[in-house]
Write a structure and sequence with these properties.
By secondary structure, the protein is α/β, with parallel strands linked by helices. The chain contains 10 helices and 14 strands. Helix 3 crosses helix 4 and helix 7 runs parallel beside helix 8. The longest helix has 22 residues. It is found in: Cytoplasm.
């Protein structure tokens, strides 16, 4: 075994739904204003009794069931999140406890919106190095906990949710080499800070960086996988803003690819956005087993990470 693959994916969105009309009753905004600027129509909001690890465990349990695996077969748990309020126990340990995973290495990965693709690369490296045989990789965030519900420029964006993948050893790699990095001098552009912590961002700075720099980075991720953008069956970018996602997909050159647009229904779920959107594409039958799919996350720090994976 000298490779790793995604054996299955799963996702979870809380039952509560917040519409644009609901937000119009909370702040000075409207459905037309929100949809024209970010493309979001609804977002799912967890209740006060639904912590991040519960969202994560729901998605992880679905991924395990889809893979036909039990918690006892997992030896590494990675949870990408930036909304873990407590420092210890971490979310990975809490998820492992909820699922009954016996004795795994359990680590959180805080790279905000690029968290899942960083965690997926870390799991791939661990499995290929022989440090783990089967990993559970989860992206989960409860952005409603850190939202400033008086700021119409940010509160209209956020949603809660989780997505998960089971990564296991295989003869041929189904997870391409990661392209990752950051722009530390722009780390201030996306923030979750303060007491209590609150999400804020410099939206125009992020937009300009994403639309000008990300196409070439995404193409490099394809090159590392030995593929051209036109070979892609799907593109799953961080679900930040439809005005970023659609132009980016065109500029990457993924002319034959399905483009994930889950942001319209789920909002920006930070580290959950890529696995959640990917799992929903699989569930809907929009991609088939073995299809090459580009996953590319970007956001806080300003960090980015992307890789081409084969669809489970």
């Amino acid at each position: 075994m000298n490779g790793s693959r995604i054996a299955a994916v799963g996702h979870y969105r809380p039952a509560g739904v917040l519409t644009n009309e609901d937000l119009a009753g909370m702040v000075d905004t409207s459905d037309e204003w929100i949809t024209s600027r970010v493309g979001i129509r609804t977002r799912h909001i967890a209740g006060p009794d639904e912590p991040v690890d519960e969202l994560a465990a729901h998605a992880a349990a679905k991924a395990l069931a889809s893979a036909g695996r039990t918690p006892a077969e997992i030896d590494l748990v990675l949870v990408a999140t930036s909304t873990a309020i407590d420092r210890s126990p971490n979310m990975a340990a809490r998820v492992a406890a909820r699922l009954g995973v016996p004795g795994p290495a359990a680590m959180d990965v805080n790279v905000v919106c690029a968290g899942f693709t960083h965690a997926l690369a870390t799991a791939d490296h661990a499995v290929r190095a022989g440090a783990a045989s089967r990993a559970l990789v989860v992206g989960a965030d409860k952005m409603s906990d850190v939202a400033d519900w008086t700021d119409r420029s940010t509160c209209v964006l956020v949603g809660d949710g989780a997505g998960a993948a089971v990564v296991e050893a295989c003869g041929e790699s189904g997870i391409g080499p990661v392209l990752w990095g950051s722009v530390p001098e722009m780390g201030h552009a996306v923030r979750i800070e303060g007491t209590p912590p609150r999400f804020s961002q410099e939206g125009q700075s992020v937009y300009r960086w994403a639309t000008t720099q990300l196409p070439s980075l995404a193409r490099r991720a394809c090159e590392k996988a030995g593929l051209a953008p036109e070979d892609l069956a799907a593109v799953v970018l961080h679900q930040a803003n439809l005005r970023i996602i659609e132009p980016l997909a065109r500029r990457i050159g993924a002319v034959n690819a399905v483009v994930a647009r889950d942001v319209t229904e789920s909002g920006n779920t930070s580290a959950a956005s890529i696995p959640l959107a990917f799992s929903r594409l699989v569930e809907q039958g929009a991609v088939s087993t073995g299809d090459p799919v580009l996953l590319f996350g970007f956001g806080g720090n300003l960090s980015y990470a992307g890789q081409v994976v084969r669809c489970p």
